[in-house]
Design brief:
Shape: elongated
Helix content: 40-55%
Strand content: 5-15%
Order of helices and strands: HEHE
Strand order of the largest sheet: 1-2
Largest sheet: 2 strands, antiparallel
Length: about 130
């Protein structure tokens, strides 16, 4: 239940005669309000737990990436001190976008575009880098 939707509270004047249906409605609204309050509290707690888990995961990923960058820097420095060359690691994933139409395109490139599922202009696909690519 969303916290922003209010369940109306039955306002009855003191000492006035209250019809039975109104009493039932007030009782029903009170139980609904209590259920909603517990549901909102549970949802808020769950949301906080999810946020904490997300923050922890993010910190782990940031640490992993920074460790990787430090490792690359150390390897570059080690190669430079040893008088060697450091070959930068290549990307493992490509994003290929079709930017040319099919008019005046020879059959082989046309077939390659078809195999890469690039059937329309401005379509894109992710490709895992392997030997042929």
């Amino acid at each position: 239940m969303a916290a922003r939707y209010m369940i109306p509270k039955g306002a009855v004047a003191e000492g006035s005669a209250v019809p039975e249906k109104v009493k039932l409605k007030i009782a029903r609204d009170a139980t609904l309000a209590k259920e909603k309050e517990t549901a909102v509290a549970a949802a808020k707690k769950d949301h906080e737990e999810q946020r904490a888990a997300l923050k922890k995961r993010t910190q782990e990923y940031e640490k992993e990436y920074s460790d990787y960058q430090k490792k690359l820097i150390d390897l570059r420095r080690e190669a430079k001190l040893g008088g060697n060359f450091f070959v930068e690691p290549e990307a493992k994933l490509l994003f290929v976008v079709r930017i040319v139409g099919i008019i005046k395109l020879s059959p082989k490139p046309r077939k390659v575009l078809q195999l890469l599922r690039l059937k329309q202009l401005h379509n894109g696909v992710f490709l895992k880098v392997n030997k042929p690519i």
